[in-house]
Amino acid sequence: MSLSDPPRVLVVEDEAALAESISYNMRREGFAVTTANDGHQALELFRADRQDIVVLDLMLPNLSGLDVCRIIRAESRVPIVILTAKDAEADKVAGLELGADDYVTKPFSMRELVSRVRAHLRRAGMADAAPAPQAGRLTAGPVEVDPERHEAFVRGELVQFTPKEFELLETFIARQGRLLTRHFLIQEIWGHDYFGDTKTLDVHVKRLRQKVEEDPREPRHILTVRGLGYRFVE
Question: Measuring CA to CA, how many Å separate 65 from each of 11, 20, 37, 188?
Fold first, then answer.
């Protein structure tokens, strides 16, 4: 994202009134907005032009939002914020497990959505612009992280992580052996203006375990400290 260009937001929403409201509020906040009303159109627009973030409704005609999320995540590291119904707990989890970075539950305030989008764009921009935190690789257990190249190896094999997964993994490795509370991890990875609950964090930890642990059901490295948070051990 160039400093001279407004951030580009792809809004994928089939309810015309809601799509118009989101677009209006995003444009008023200085974003360049492109809208799509179904999954196929969303993928066409995403592939046709660079987007800095995707706001994605999961209930879409023709091609589901979950499928769109999966396809975009396979092709890009762009942040994805999904929109879900209040009672669609399974959809929230499924979206996060497919690579979404965050979710907002309908009905939501536009202020909350804009704040979430700004937070993800800010963190993505910081990740692009910031120098490597240290010259060498970070190693713990079977994991080796190269902050400068933004690469991670598990048991010697290069593994693909989403931006939030990588940030979370790097945080664990840099503070290995220490108890990291859920509150600390949410503030560290999603920022101080994060509105959501801990489910997003827990799903990201689950995805990390699937990529790091030999048996994710019996983790040996990313351990849960009941009622408090997580600890990464060798």
Answer: 12, 18, 11, 28
Can you tell me the distance from the alpha carbon of 93 to that of 152, in angstroms, rounded to the nearest whole number?
A: 24
What's the pLDDT tens digit per position in 118-155?
888 887 774 443 333 444 678 888 998 888 788 899 98
Q: Nearest Cα to 40, choosing from 76, 7, 71, 81?
A: 71
Give the CATH number, domain containing residue 219.
Answer: 1.10.10.10
pLDDT tens profile 50-96: 899 999 999 998 899 999 999 999 898 899 999 988 777 888 888 89
Phi, psi of 107 (to 5 degrees): -75, 150
Q: What is the domain range of residue 85?
A: 8-129
d(CA 166, CA 147): 9
The span from the CA of 226 to the CA of 234, in Å, is 19
> Does residue 42 sit within a domain?
yes
Using alpha carbons, list the distances in angstroms from residue 234 to 112, 139, 173, 212, 214. Answer: 39, 9, 10, 12, 13
Distance CA 137, CA 119 (A): 27
Separation between Cα atoms, residue 52 and residue 1, nearest integer Å = 7
The first and second tokens of residue 49, run together, are 């032009």
**Which one-letter amino acid corresponds to residue 202?**
D
Residue 115 and residue 195 in one domain: no
